[in-house]
């Protein structure tokens, strides 16, 4: 098996995850600006409304939903087939996903420690980001061992 064949799943999987993250981020952005659009349980621990309207739903004055939308729009571009042909973008993808993972750690800590509630839609974005990181890091390790 050639190295190209062994790693073919990485670009496809990363693009699918990026598009999934983009879709959820678009939904959260719409929900941020439109009252009553957010479909999520409200109650004890799971309460999307409380999380998405909390003080922590903005970072440096920018809604976190918009930051997620921008991140996944950028990542979708980085994961298009044409972008995988440019070797220089390998490091841009890895650096960017590193920033994304750090932001996920901050957001999860904010949900659990500061807000005391969990948003299932936010969790979906967090899981997608971590899965994207796992795919890219796995691909990078396999690429370096060829």
Distance separating the two termini: 11 Å
Helix fraction bin? over 70%
Q: Give the CATH topology.
A: de novo design (two linked rop proteins)
> How many beta strands in the DSSP annotation?
2
Briefly note the structural class of the backbone.
Answer: mainly alpha
What tags apply to this protein structure?
146 residues, single chain, mainly alpha, 2 strands, two-stranded antiparallel ribbon
Structure description:
It is built from 7 helices and 2 strands. It is mainly alpha-helical. It has a single domain (3-144), classed as Up-down Bundle (de novo design (two linked rop proteins)). It has a two-stranded antiparallel ribbon. A hairpin with a 2-residue loop joins β1 (58-59) and β2. α2 packs antiparallel against α4 (64-78) and α2 runs antiparallel to α7. The chain is elongated and about 50 Å long.
